[in-house]
Design a protein that fits this description.
It is a single chain. The chain folds into four domains: 34-204, Rossmann fold (3-Layer(aba) Sandwich); 209-269, Helicase, Ruva Protein, domain 3 (Orthogonal Bundle); 271-386, Zinc Finger, Delta Prime, domain 3 (Up-down Bundle); 410-426 and 436-573, GMP Synthetase, Chain A, domain 3 (2-Layer Sandwich). The protein contains 24 helices and ten strands. The protein has helices at 34-37, 50-61, 79-91, 106-112, 130-139, 162-173, 193-196, 209-222, 229-239, 243-257, 263-270, 275-287, 290-302, 307-325, 336-346, 351-367, 376-386, 464-469, 471-479, 483-489, 509-517, 519-533, 545-554, 557-564; strands at residues 68-73, 119-123, 150-155, 179-185, 200-204, 226-227, 260-261, 492-498, 501-506, 538-543. It has a five-stranded parallel beta sheet, covered by helices on one side. A three-stranded mixed beta sheet has the order 8-9-10.
């Protein structure tokens, strides 16, 4: 019996060429990402979070380690890395507590190599259910295998469901003495207060621009990269306060351009416009030359720049100009050449113009997400930023008729809706239809029940035309003494006058019933009409016939067809009733 063997040689080579026997496999191992290669391994390696690392080191020295921690902050600020460092520190075997974690003992090496069973990392985004937390709760009672403490790191803790949080609550409050919980989240507002109150909370701040420049510069030197200072600054700005984002972008640049990275390489990879074009756009805003700015914008887009990145770069540049305009340029971290450019533009732009341009381009950056045109929001922002703002001039006061509250235009009884030609206009009233009665006339003083401090005007003979013409004024006077019932009159209109009986038609039957049943309202409105027209009148409240006519009109097949096409019945034209 013959046995055949298959020989497999595994080595880390980039060659894909098979061996002469044809049975050799060349396996290429992937390169380690820079953000993993330079991940902090001790408290001293954590950048920009001294307020947290100092507190944790003191807690280790004083042996005052808490049973639960809550790490919160934006992405890439070191939450999970600090949690792993704390897990190493509490279990480190180095006798000198000030040197923990030592990264040399068996526990530290096991954690660095991700083979320590007593360190449990849970991705809450993938384990959101209550069953996952119940499984965790059942296992916390088991003592650690090797280490002193069993440490649970729950990443993206805000993704847990409410039921999962409730299941975790009691265990988090009183865990076994050998268990430490570390919760990490980017959205602490979604973590219940009952959970956060049982943890020591640490807020991780975003990295400053200078901290990112220093960190990325150190990585570039260790990786023997040739990185232009301008390129390094642009990478740090693009990282937006995240160490991980900056390191990942640096890793991507090495794959794109090798070990020599220039500003142009970064601009091409990011889809960013050159600094000269950004300066040209801002200079066109300062000089209010819209054509010059549009041309610069077109050149940037034609060169392959991303419009959203252009908006961000213009906003950043305008911010620098604004800081020079308000004498706060010490906050800027840019080169001297760029500072000189911004200083010159700040002499042409005041803080109001620059802040207005920042708002316009900020809105354009949001509009670009849903815009059908890739550059239209930017062009509109550029045009508006270059134009002089139109001054707002307050109109001169004019004698206008008293405005009536807004009403439903579908109601044919609302003043201002289309009316018959026979009715006088209620929206334009140049002069009263009747002259005032001389002061010696009777009842020139307003009744105390009306509540007016001056005598109400007395108009001439009572007629349906006069009542319709002054209907808004009558309602306004009535509103002073009875606001609730005056609201019913806004959907009503005077219909007829027979003798001293004034018939008022209401659009809604409920309004007619309530007004008619309110004896105080009837007396008060009667008194206002009597004082206004110097005569006695009696009110009769009914549902207007126009309501029934409108409902009948809407049932007409021809009108219903028009309504289905978007039409609306706004009024019914009919002959006005004759007065007695």
């Amino acid at each position: 019996m013959m046995l055949s063997f298959l020989r497999i040689d595994i080595h880390t080579s980039f060659s894909r060429k098979p061996s002469a026997s044809g049975r050799l496999w060349n396996v290429t191992m992937p390169a380690q990402a820079l953000y993993l290669k330079y991940r902090p391994q001790s408290f001293d390696d954590v950048q920009g979070q001294d307020h947290i690392t100092h507190t944790l080191k003191n807690a280790l020295a004083l042996n005052r380690i808490a049973h639960a921690y809550l790490f919160t902050g934006t992405r890439g600020t070191g939450k999970t890395s600090t949690a792993r460092i704390l897990a190493k520190a509490v279990n480190c075997l180095d006798p000198d507590v000030n040197r923990r974690p030592c990264n040399r003992c068996a526990i530290c090496r096991a954690i660095n190599e991700e083979r320590l069973l007593d360190l449990v990392e849970i991705d809450a985004a993938s384990n959101t259910g209550v069953d996952n937390i119940r499984d965790l709760r059942d296992k916390v009672d088991f003592r650690p295998n090797q280490a002193r403490f069993k440490v649970y790191i729950i990443d993206e803790a805000h993704m847990l469901s409410n039921a999962a949080f409730n299941a975790l609550l009691k265990t988090l409050e009183e865990p076994p003495p050998h268990v430490i919980f570390i919760l990490a989240t980017t959205e602490v507002n979604r973590v219940p207060a009952t959970i956060s109150s049982r943890c020591q909370r640490f807020d991780f701040k975003r990295a400053s621009l200078q901290e990112l420049i220093d960190q990325l510069g150190d990585i570039a030197r260790q990786e023997e990269m040739e990185l232009d200072p301008a390129a390094l600054e642009l990478v740090a700005r693009q990282a937006n306060g995240s160490f991980r984002d900056g390191t990942s972008l640096l890793d991507q640049l090495t794959a794109y351009s090798g070990d020599t990275i220039t500003l142009r390489h970064v601009e091409v990879l990011l889809g960013a416009a050159s600094r000269e074009i950004i300066h040209e756009i801002v200079a066109s805003i300062a000089a209010r030359e819209v054509g010059r700015g549009i041309a610069a914008l077109d050149r940037a887009v034609d060169a392959g720049a991303d419009p959203r990145q252009i908006a961000r770069d213009v906003i950043e540049y305008l911010r620098g100009v604004m800081l020079f305009a308000v004498k706060s340029e010490t906050m800027l971290v840019v080169g001297e050449e760029v500072k000189q450019e911004m200083r010159e533009l700040a002499a042409q732009m005041n803080s109001e113009q620059s802040s207005r341009a920042i708002r316009l381009f900020g809105q354009a950056a949001l509009d670009l997400r849903n815009s059908a045109s890739p550059t239209l929001p930017l062009e509109m922002a550029l045009v508006e930023a270059t134009l002089e703002p139109t001054p707002i001039v307050a109109p001169a006061p004019a004698h206008t008729p008293r405005a009536t509250p807004a009403r439903d235009t579908a109601n044919p009884f609302v003043p201002g809706a289309p009316r018959t030609n026979a009715e006088p206009s209620l929206t334009k009233k140049a002069e009263p239809a009747f002259q005032r009665v001389p002061a010696a006339s009777k009842k020139t003083k307003a009744s105390p029940s009306v509540g007016a401090s001056e005598p109400e005007p007395v108009l001439g003979k009572l007629s349906i035309a006069a009542v319709k013409q002054n209907w808004s004024d009558l309602i306004a006077r009535f509103q002073k003494v009875n606001k609730s019932s005056a609201a019913y009159l806004r959907d009503a209109e005077p219909l007829s006058l027979k003798g001293d009986e004034l018939t008022i038609g209401f659009f809604y039957p409920l309004h007619a019933e309530r007004f008619n049943n309110d004896k105080n309202a009837l007396v008060q409105f009667n008194k206002i009409i009597s004082q206004t027209f110097d005569t006695t009148a009696h009110l009769k409240c009914i549902v207007s016939p126009k309501r029934a006519k409108m409902q009948a009109a809407q049932d007409d097949p021809l009108i219903r067809t028009g309504m289905n096409l978007g039409g609306k019945v706004s009024n019914i034209i009919e002959e006005e009733e004759e007065e007695d």
